[in-house]
Design a protein that fits this description.
Radius of gyration: 20 Å
Structural class: mainly alpha
Mean pLDDT: 93
Number of strands: 10
Helix content: 40-55%
Shape: globular
Largest sheet: 2 strands, antiparallel
Number of helices: 13
Length: about 350
């Protein structure tokens, strides 16, 4: 595998997006995440100059939504700068339409960590209050305060956010745990929402959320064995997301990561998985596609590389399964958490004195 060609593929998406991705303008932060984290997993961050890294960091902070005092608790990050008007007409503010979005908040904070930012410009209080404001009575989460679905995808994003800022605030973890348990289906997999069909992506989301919130103990040994069986049965060379569906590069991450979380990945067939992922590789312009012989994209390229990382492909960094960033970035995040804890302890000591 030619690492450099894939790293350059990602770097192009950080500078210029092709016309076919114009419909994804409102979610640019996720494309940036796949590109930055992909370059990191390829151990090729040296491809980005220090100025480029700083430009990305500053752009990310420009997406942060800090609510007005006494206003709606909608803190977090947007997916793009479309509402950041440079010179808005009088009485034509877009501030009321700026809401944090859980998926964008997760990917934005992850980018900052990967690029070595100290997270000092994060408004952690506004972010955790924003997460709490979108938790539903059943324990699930919606993407933002209005107009979005609420399901297991955003349970995962909420868990990632709280884990990364090291603060769960008033988020009800126990209620979230009950929602996850209620979404386990008869076959052992986990559905996107209660009473839906088991799905590989949402099974990962559920297991990762439980791990990040320190609630894996909620699963019984019988439930763990059933989900392990369901996950392992998704392999047919590569991995599929549901029974009777074609295999797809990205499920080498979704299913593979879920198996890693429950310590069962070694039971999968490494050789067949690797062969399928590499069959979807574009050796000319770089990237990986969903299926062999189709066009590559940042999403499948990133998750294909993560799948290869699980297989211990030479030259790739180890990936932290539940948080979906490199272990190097995760260690950096834990160092930041330690620093925050030291500051908090020092502040308490000063107040006592």
């Amino acid at each position: 595998m030619n690492k450099r060609i894939h790293a350059k593929y990602f770097s192009r998406f950080l500078n210029l997006l092709p016309h076919r991705l114009s419909c994804h303008d409102s979610t640019r932060a996720t494309i940036a995440f796949f590109s930055v984290s992909g370059i990191d997993v390829l151990d090729s961050l040296d491809l980005l100059s220090e100025q480029s890294k700083q430009n990305i960091i500053d752009w990310i902070y420009g997406l942060q939504v800090i609510p007005k005092e006494g206003g709606v608790k909608c803190g977090g990050f947007q997916g793009c700068t479309a509402l950041n008007l440079l010179d808005p007409p009088e009485n034509c503010s877009t501030d009321d339409y700026k809401w944090g979005h859980l998926a964008m908040t997760y990917t934005c904070i992850a980018i900052l960590v990967i690029l070595g930012d100290d997270l000092s410009r994060l408004d952690r209080k506004a972010i955790v209050e924003g997460v709490k404001s979108v938790q539903k009575p059943d324990g699930s989460f919606s993407a933002s305060i209005e107009g979005n679905e609420f399901d297991m995808r955003f349970v995962y994003c909420a868990s990632c956010i709280c884990y990364m800022i090291n603060d769960w605030g008033d988020v009800d973890k126990e209620l979230m745990g009950r929602y996850i348990l209620s979404s386990i289906r008869y076959d052992g997999g986990v559905s996107q929402h209660i009473e839906n069909e088991s799905h590989g992506g949402t099974t990962f989301c559920a297991l990762a959320a439980l791990e990040l919130s320190d609630q894996m103990h909620l699963l019984t040994s019988k439930q763990l064995e059933k989900v392990k069986r369901w996950l392992l049965f998704r392999q047919d060379g590569g991995f599929q997301g549901r029974p009777n569906k074609p295999i797809d590069t990205c499920y080498s991450f979704w299913i593979g990561s879920a198996l890693k979380i429950i310590d069962a990945f070694e039971l999968s067939n490494f050789k067949e998985n690797r062969e399928y992922i590499l069959s979807c590789q574009d050796t000319i312009v770089g990237g990986f596609s969903k299926w062999s012989g189709t066009s590559s994209d940042p999403f499948h390229t990133y998750f294909g590389l993560c799948g290869l990382s699980f297989l211990r492909e030479p030259g790739l960094l180890e990936v932290m399964p539940s948080l979906n960033i490199s272990m190097r970035a995760h260690r950096r995040l834990k160092d930041i958490h330690t620093m925050w804890d030291l500051y908090a302890q020092a502040e308490v000591q000063l107040n006592i004195e």
